[in-house]
């Protein structure tokens, strides 16, 4: 069990750190088998090996949150890198129930943010839930681990959050946008990244989806004109999901496409708009899902 008191102070406050420090010292003084015992004024990451009974006692009283800093290898968060902490991956809590409650609360908050756009744009109602469901299917097929799947799912929740910064006259305009309006609309990806920059618990994969899901394999996308594998893999994956849902559901500027037409469009875009390998995987999963009758609201 790693207990980092400098980290604890930054996360929970000085008084909480002091009380935790005293509790751990009390346990170690009673023969808990600690590898180290240190003076109160030294605040650094220290690893303890507790016997099971004492570890359970500590866990029952304290939420022990050792945090990993992948770019810095531990210790204090440098002031110049406020987002270097990947908290969603490194959160390790002695109480499994606490972990579940924290993730459920955080995920519920993210879902609410993602669905906020649908309160402005009723045409996209249900879009968030549908793309999250498709994202889960793809990440499961790719056998991503749970933290990575969760990070991409959060990206699906938040992918269009930047559209909250787009004026209604553009966002809700019926018909096609002119060149100036389209430039404003394309800026939503950058707006989204900026809106999320003060949420340090969001992992990089989530931010990648928000920023880069409109990039194209051939480099003709936005906001950065990335090509091929320069585009983060999770964004390449989600772009297929987002386009599929846009094609198969009605928008102000188009009717809903049939499933057959949408599949043909994905096939045409493989190698130009989409990662060809992921496009093939998506179409395979889509066919399997349709065969099981799990897709609703899509015309044959």
How would you describe what is shown here?
This protein is mainly α. The chain folds into 2 domains: 2-94, no CATH class; 103-291, Hypothetical protein af1432 (Orthogonal Bundle). The chain is built from 14 helices and 2 strands. The protein has helices at residues 5-12, 14-29, 52-61, 87-90, 96-116, 127-141, 146-158, 168-171, 179-186, 188-196, 204-212, 233-248, 259-269, 276-291; strands spanning 2-4, 45-47. A two-stranded antiparallel sheet has the order 1-2. Helix 6 packs across helix 12 and helix 13 (259-269) runs antiparallel to helix 14. The longest helix is centred in the middle third of the chain and has 21 residues, at 96-116. The model is unreliable at 1-12, 30-51 and 57-94 (pLDDT under 50).
Roughly what percent helix?
Answer: 40-55%
Give the integer mean of the pLDDT values.
Answer: 75
Number of domains: 2
Spans of at least 5 consecutive residues with low confidence: 1-12, 30-51, 57-94
Count every beta strand, where a strand is a DSSP E run of 2 or more residues: 2
Q: What's the CATH H-level homologous superfamily of the largest domain?
A: Hypothetical protein af1432
Q: Major sheet: size, sense and barrel closure? A: 2 strands, antiparallel
| Assembly state (oligomeric) | single chain
Rg estimate, integer Å: 23 Å
CATH architecture of the largest domain: Orthogonal Bundle
Tell me the structural class. Answer: mainly alpha
Percentage of residues in strands: under 5%
Strand order across the biggest sheet? 1-2
Using the coordinates shown, work out and report the CATH topology of the largest domain: Hypothetical protein af1432
**N-to-C SSE series?**
EHHEHHHHHHHHHHHH
